Amino acid sequence: MNAATQVSILDLPLDERRGTRAMTWFILTELGLFVVLFFAYFYIGSTATLWPTD
Amino acid sequence: MATVSAAQRLTHLWETPHTWWGALATVDHKTIGKRYLVTALIFLLLGGVEALLMRVQLSASDLRVLDPETYNQLFSMHGITMIFWYASPILSGFGNFLIPLMLGARDMALPRLNAFSYWMFLFSGVFLYVSLALAQAPHAGWFAYAPYTNAAYSPGLNMDFYAIALVLLTVSTTAGAVNFLVTIFRLRAPGMSINRMPLLMYSTATTSVLAVLSLPALTAACVFLELDRQWGTHFFDSAAGGTPLLWQHTFWFFGHPWVYIIFLPATGMISMLLPVFARRPIVGYTWVAVATVLTGVVGMGVWVHHMFAVGMSQLSMSFFSAASMTISIFSTVQVFAWLATLWTGRPVLTTSMLFALGFIATFIIGGLNGVATAVIPFDWQLTDTYFVVSHLHYVLIGANVFPVFAAFYYWLPKMTGRLMNESTGKWSFWLMFIGFNVAFFPMQITGLLGMPRRIYTYPAGMGWDTINLVITIGAFVFALGVLVSVVNFLVGSRTGALAGKDPWHADTLEWSLPSPPPAYGSVHIPTVVSRHPLWGEHEEEHDPSGERILDQQRLTITTSALDAVPIGLAKMPEDTITPLAVSVAVMAVFTALLLKAVWVAAAMVLVMLLLIAAWLWPREEKLA
Predict the structure, then answer these.
(1) Contact B266, B406 (CB under 8 A)
(2) Residue A43 to residues B40, B250, B303, Cα–Cα distance (Å)
(3) Cα(B162)–Cα(B527) distance, rounded to whole angstroms?
(4) A3, B46, B502, B521: which one has the fewest Cβ atoms less than 10 Å from its Cβ?
(5) What is the DSSP string of B184-223?
(6) B518-572 confidence digits (pLDDT tens)
């Protein structure tokens, strides 16, 4: 038997962090969204003769 | 007797009532997985009918079966349906059903989010197809290049349906990807360390990370498109300071990883079933796992190879050309691992195995003509010709449809408890394999002869007529093969021979369960001491003290990410209607936005927030 089976399962604490872990990935997605928004800003800026337009 | 009563208690805890309410409220991963599979198969058939209509139109020169606008809508809907509403969701279906069972978990990590993902997938597809019923379907191809999609050139609601449906689908896919990641890294059975995971976990985890990182680009692109079309911005309007190339960059930054999202889990399924029918463990497990992950890493950096013809600097094109060639190395590692497994094993030619072999053959052709188009001067000659249509179908049908059908023949006995008819399955395979090659190999020739893609007809005298007629015949043969399998699935699921627990003598944990598996999975959450738990002596359910039954309330074991050491007990939610209600509210918000009913949309946002609060509200727990 390996170490995994020596742990008493019923003594384990309640793990309520699944949502936190999921939220970490969601925040990464949001980060990706902001990366794309900044990319769009600078990419349009690089092709525009006047930037920012105002 | 103790086990029988534990099974009864677990059934009471986990089984969804067989009522309408239960059907709408269930969060059972197996039910949701099967729903994904059935829905995605329906979309496959819809996309297939669209393809056949196009092939009738192109079977000879100067035909007028379809008018240009209808043809544009059909080829756009065909691509959109197949790529977004079939190819990835069908893999989500297999993942939903199989992954918790393979990991020895009771359910996905976030069951309510799982139900929400499915409802959003279904409703977004219905939303898209409403456009076809209104004759306002998207008509600018599946990648919808600006400026064709600007309001000036596409004034109807066609491209609004496209943009909004895709945003809705990204909500579903992102939620699904996050769920897979948390499940794979937290709910593996004790002892299933990362080097003992089934290879399907590597491919699913890799594609889930790709989805999380790349989907925001699609969301942003579609929001820009809607803002341009409906709210007066100019992201893609070069006359007003925008640039159409922004669409191409953002779309393909998402689009190329998406190719791997719909391909890697399929290869993962092949890596699961091919060794079983070769009667030996896969050769080079570690190499295949690493190659899978590296495909994902490099796959994030090749999107510009879709844009070689737009006029960019030599340096950037050279970089992306090199990256595109590099990525073939990782696919080649997998192909050689499968070939070595076959070579050193004792292959059994079941229907599932035939589809796996068909996949390898077609995928190699698709890979080779893909490398050819990664060479920039060659790409310049062939871009927007039927050569590219051939390539993408060799990759997408080769690396998705054939593995998916292999997976159906392999896992449907587990899902339904019954074996599919093998000889009917083999007929289906040969019809599909021959039909596929007759349909798509000649497209390389028409491409080399200069036939552009997305034309609704062509004049006589171009030398394309005969080849196109052959292609159309091949397409119908391929469709017949698909239909034979679908009928086989329907009939076999009801009247096939009983499958038993493990009809293929397979090695992974799902085969230790009855077919179909009970609502709770295994009575004792298993422990894993080997990469192939069911091959050789195994005692994964050995639990003399009964501590891994967990039959007092809905619980499963959470484990550490690398070594799968138990770290906690996770409470799992009861069945609830709130995921369905929230997805209906989300649909209402976006439908109101489509119709520019801003106040209705705002009201529906409030309703949605209230429903989310109801979702999060603590509930009384059901005890056994």
Answers:
(1) no
(2) 37, 11, 16
(3) 47
(4) A3
(5) HHH-PPTT--GGGS-HHHHHHHHHHHHHHHHHHHHHHHHH
(6) 999 999 999 998 999 999 777 777 777 788 888 888 999 999 999 999 999 999 9
What are the sequence ranges of the domains in chain A?
23-54
Q: How far apart are CA B537 and CA B491, in angstroms?
A: 36
Domain boundaries, chain B: 2-379+498-584
Question: Do residue B250 and residue A5 have CB atoms under 8 angstroms apart?
Answer: no
Residue-wise pLDDT tens digits, B104-146: 999 999 999 999 999 999 999 999 999 999 999 999 999 999 9
Tokens of residue B379, six digits: 């790409």
Report the gap between the CA of A38 and the closest CA in chain B (Å).
11
C-alpha B416/C-alpha B420 separation (Å) is: 10
| Number of CB atoms found within 10 A of residue B578's CB | 20
Q: Give B573's contacts in chain A (Cβ within 8 Å).
A: none
Radius of gyration for the alpha carbons in chain B, expressed in angstroms and rounded: 24
CB B51 within 8 A of CB B475: yes
Phi, psi dihedrals of residue B19, rounded to the nearest 5°? -130, 170
- Distance CA(B291)–CA(B120), nearest Å, equals 32
The distance of Cα A2 from the centroid of its chain, to the nearest Å, equals 34
B449 and A CB contact within 8 Å: no
Task: Name the token pair of B35.
Answer: 């729903």
Residue B460 gets the label, from left (phi > 0), alpha (psi -120 to 50) or beta, of beta
CATH 1.20.210.10 fits B2-379+498-584, yes or no: yes
Residues of B in contact with A47 (CB under 8 A): 243, 245
Q: Which of residues 563-592 of B touch A (CB under 8 A)?
A: 563-571
Provide the token pair at B622.
């059901």
Which candidate, B322, B272, B286, places its Cα nearest to that of B302? B322
Beta bridge partners of B566: B559
Nearest to B191 among A4, A39, A51 (CB): A4
Report the predicted TM-score, pTM, of the whole model to 2 decimal places: 0.95
